[in-house]
From TrEMBL:
This is Major facilitator superfamily (MFS) profile domain-containing protein. InterPro entries: MFS, MFS_dom, MFS_trans_sf. Coiled coil: none annotated. It comes from Lunasporangiospora selenospora. It is a multi-pass membrane protein.
């Protein structure tokens, strides 16, 4: 029941985040206006995490952990009334449910293999057949997308080089971010011995500072080059992670958690927002819904895959993590190696951004001519849970619908110049 509920939760997230990104991209023209809009968008997302952390700490301390899920359900129900009563009339597109199912179960199987391989063995009957079937499903999914008339992930979209690099970069960035949140939480609770509420309060500085930085970046980013910003942000994220790794049962929260969180907040802000803008900048309006869904899928996959990989590193280098008392040095050894794994993700992100992202400003489109764009349009049209990976398939399912809606929206507007 718990896994089924997580599947439904992932499907809900996959239907909201890409649609929200597409609405921002379509209704705000490329340049400073869109940069500010995405800055506000991400600021409110961070604001939600602030209230979420506080609410989680208060609810667990007072009502118990089951009320975490009940409070989320109540919040989702209230959010429903923010949806316009009269939806826009658009053509109902055909959806490739076969491809969506293949992608969903394929990704879920790979995540299960990475999460359970250490416990059952990487070549055991409990894990290896699942991995083989999952790889087969993903390979079949790619083949099917080249044959169906209405693919949920048209392969032509990957011809946008900057977009392709940004999606992979988003995957690595989310793996880093979720790894930091998960393992700093474990350090505060399992090594420092803090309560749930005290841990939530200890985490607040990070999202709060990110929100403030996003607001400022929305105004100054049009005057900056995005690539150096992403490179610098990746470096300071790795530096902050290295500081986290020095913590132990006797460490000060201020020097080994609070200050690194401040540094890390700048790094996250300097990488996530510019990368999101780069992902959609060279893409035509009619493809905004599609690329937003794929970008969101990259983020959704980064969390479970990242945590799975880091858990393997932590457990493999720590041995027995079933420690009864807080502050055991052996427990911190595994967490420290997980922090080193996060730095490894950062190194990969740095070189990916260095070699594949352009050097231009946000108000200037990437070096793709209008003729090339037109040619592209004519080419055929925590321990991680499986529920996290299911959202990948759900996000892919709405790509066709998002693309058709974006085309309809695009036809009603005067085409906006791609250069300011």
């Amino acid at each position: 029941m718990f896994i089924f509920a997580r599947v439904l939760q992932g499907m809900g997230a996959a239907n909201t985040v890409p649609s929200a990104m597409a609405l921002v991209a379509i209704h705000y023209p490329e340049g400073p206006t869109r940069s500010k809009a995405f800055a506000v968008f991400r600021s409110f997302a961070v604001l939600g995490s602030i209230f979420g952390a506080l609410l989680a700490g208060l609810v667990v301390s007072s009502l118990g952990w089951p009320w975490i899920f009940r409070a989320s359900s109540i919040t989702a129900l209230l959010s429903y009334f923010a949806i316009p009563l009269t939806p826009p009339k658009n053509e109902r597109p055909k959806i490739d449910f076969t491809g969506a199912a293949m992608a969903m179960f394929g990704v879920a199987g790979v995540v299960y293999y990475m999460s359970s391989g250490f416990d059952y063995g990487w070549t055991s009957l409990e894990t290896l057949p699942t991995f083989i079937i999952s790889v087969f499903l993903l390979a079949t999914f790619v083949f099917v997308e080249t044959k169906v008339s209405d693919p949920i992930m048209p392969l032509r979209i990957w011809k946008y080089r900057t977009f392709s690099a940004s999606v992979i970069l988003a995957f690595a960035q989310m793996a880093m971010l979720q790894g930091i949140i998960f393992y700093t939480t474990m350090v505060m609770q399992e090594v420092f011995g803090w309560s749930v509420l005290k841990t939530a309060l200890g985490l607040i500085i990070h999202p709060f500072l990110c929100m403030l930085i996003y607001i400022v970046m929305g105004k100054v980013m049009p005057h900056l080059r995005l690539k150096p910003l992403i490179l610098f942000g990746t470096v300071i994220r790795c530096g902050a992670t290295l500081l986290f790794s020095f913590a132990d049962e006797h460490s000060s929260y201020f020097f080994f958690i609070f200050l690194p969180y401040i540094i890390h907040a700048f790094g996250v802000s300097f990488t996530t927002l510019p990368n999101q803008i780069m992902a959609i900048r060279e893409v035509n309006n009619c493809d905004q819904g599609l690329v937003s869904a794929i970008y969101s899928t990259g983020l959704q996959l980064g969390a479970p895959f990242g945590i799975a990989i880091l858990n393997v590193i932590s457990i493999a280098t720590n041995g027995n993590q079933e420690v009864a008392e807080h502050g055991n040095p052996a427990l911190m050894k595994g967490y420290r190696n997980a922090f080193y794994g996060i730095i490894g993700f950062g190194i990969v992100s740095f070189f990916l951004a260095l070699f594949f992202l352009p050097w231009d400003k946000p108000s200037i489109p990437a070096a793709v001519s209008r003729q090339e764009d037109e040619a592209l349009e004519t080419v055929g049209h925590r321990a991680p849970s499986i529920g996290d990976s299911i959202s990948c398939g759900s996000a892919l399912t709405i790509m066709a619908r998002s693309e058709k809606q974006a085309i309809s929206e695009h036809d009603t507007k005067v085409e906006i110049s791609r250069r300011w």
